[in-house]
Request: fold
Amino acid sequence: MTTPNHPGTRESLLDQDQRFFDALVAGDVTVLDELLTDDFLLVSLSDGAVATKFDLLSLVRSGAVTFPAVQPFPAEAVVRFIGDIGITVGRTSMNFTQPDGTTFTAGSRYTHVFAFEPAVGWRLHSAQGTQITAGA
Reply:
């Protein structure tokens, strides 16, 4: 269901997913700062830790966490709308380097929760990844 207050389309949310992934790969904290709400929370794929917007921006800005590759599979994504809330559930193949220098490669399922803000558009409130095995 969509409301007349926002452009709630599958493509609009998948574009925001891609924008998030591209910003992670590029280490672009400016785009991340614009896209993420101030109360953004990320549940880590690797260990389930919860990171705030400040935590994620600090780790990306310093280079302590890098994302050499994030490959989403948008054709498989499920996109839903509840009023001005948009939810995507998708799959990625990704690798990243953690603050301790270890690398992590995984297939994942993710859930992103967006809210539409009329002045700025879709913003990401919450992201959670779950590691999956090949073919799942």
